């Protein structure tokens, strides 16, 4: 596993300490999970932009026309 060292402003550091578990190992896992979620969200946004720019035709969409809207 690769490591990254970064600084946080005081407000972000305090918020992290209030939200994340108190042990260093669990706090690190909390940060990894938050980053993973942010990366997945950014990927979803890019995929969504691509589909908006070039949507499927009705024949390609098939049963997806009645699917619920996905909201991450």
Task: Describe, in plain words, how this protein is organized in 3D.
By secondary structure, the protein is an all-alpha fold. It is built from 3 helices and no strands. The mean pLDDT is 86.
Q: Could you name the key traits of this structure?
A:
3 helices, 61% helix
Mind sketching the topology for me?
Layout: H1 10-19, H2 24-53, H3 58-61
Could you give a short description of this structure?
By secondary structure, this protein is mainly α.
Q: Compute the separation of the termini in Å.
A: 27 Å
Main beta-sheet annotation: none
Secondary structural class: mainly alpha
pLDDT averaged residue by residue: 86
Q: How many strand elements?
A: 0
How many helical stretches? 3
Query: Which descriptor suits the 3D outline?
Result: elongated
**Percentage of residues in strands:** under 5%
**What is the element string, with H for helices and E for strands?**
HHH
- How big is the Rg? 19 Å
Percent helix: 55-70%
Unreliable runs, pLDDT <50, ≥5 residues?
none
């Amino acid at each position: 596993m690769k490591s990254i060292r970064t600084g946080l402003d005081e407000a972000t550091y305090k918020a992290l300490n209030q939200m994340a578990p108190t042990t260093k190992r669990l706090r690190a896992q909390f940060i990894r999970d938050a980053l993973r979620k942010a990366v997945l969200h950014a990927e979803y946004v890019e995929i969504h932009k691509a589909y908006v720019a070039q949507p499927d035709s009705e024949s390609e969409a098939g049963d997806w026309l009645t699917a619920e809207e996905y909201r991450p």
